[in-house]
Amino acid sequence: MNATKEKLTAGGSAVGGWIMTADATVAELMAGEAFDWICVDMEHTAADYAALEHICRAVKASGKEVFARLQGHDAVMAKKVLDMGCDGIIVPCVNTREEAERAVAMAKYPPAGIRGASLARCTDYGRGFARYFAEHNDNVLVAVMLEHVDAVTNVEEILSVEGIDATFIGPYDLSASMNLAGQLDHPEVRAAQNTLLQACQRHGVAPGYHVVPTEPERVRVSIEEGFRFVALGLDTRFIIDGCRRMLEGVPR
Length: 252
Ligand code: 3PY
Ligand code: MG
Description:
Layout: H1 3-9, E1 14-19, H2 24-31, E2 37-41, H3 49-60, E3 65-69, H4 75-84, E4 88-91, H5 97-107, H6 129-139, E5 141-146, H7 149-153, H8 155-159, E6 166-169, H9 171-177, H10 187-203, E7 208-211, H11 216-225, E8 229-232, H12 235-247
Parallel strand pairs: 1-2, 1-8, 2-3, 3-4, 4-5, 5-6, 7-8
């Protein structure tokens, strides 16, 4: 059972933690807090498959879902992160219908998709193969990142692809693709996000957003706007914030 996917399918919200440190202890700490899911960022970090496998163990001990943000659109990578024990994939920079179809196909076993079958960790090394295989296509969460102006142009076609459970806006890439890198509150960036949000709502796909700055107010606003698959900050920023808070006012 993928509780995050069930919540999103039922029209609810699920909030996640974001792991940049590639560290299982950090993941274990965060999974013990009130996050619904934890995502390991394999796109912009040094995280490798061995680290991911340990993080899967750490997160699943708390009964939470664990997702991997892939490096790109590589079906081999999707297969491996799911084999390690991830409950879903977050696919970066999906700009076309074809890329969205590929994202779904690489997450699912035949006949729905092209994922290779094995006796990997996800199947309890084969001891649970039959059940895992039978349930996987329904359980796996597929989130496509909408983070480029081309995705705004093509959003209707992207969302018409069957099997997308959630979208996920990357505000840094989206703003960069508009020559407004990092200007998250620029009216044009906000207008693009709104177009994506409304398209998701029309298509019944859970709209997602990465609130990268560790500002609780932004999380509240995003959820009130209608985003339902929301990541809160970054583990690295939590450490920076904690250090700064403790160091503030230290007499020198
Ligand atoms: C972005 O802001 O581009 C992201 O990918 C955040 O996850
Ligand atoms: Mg991005």
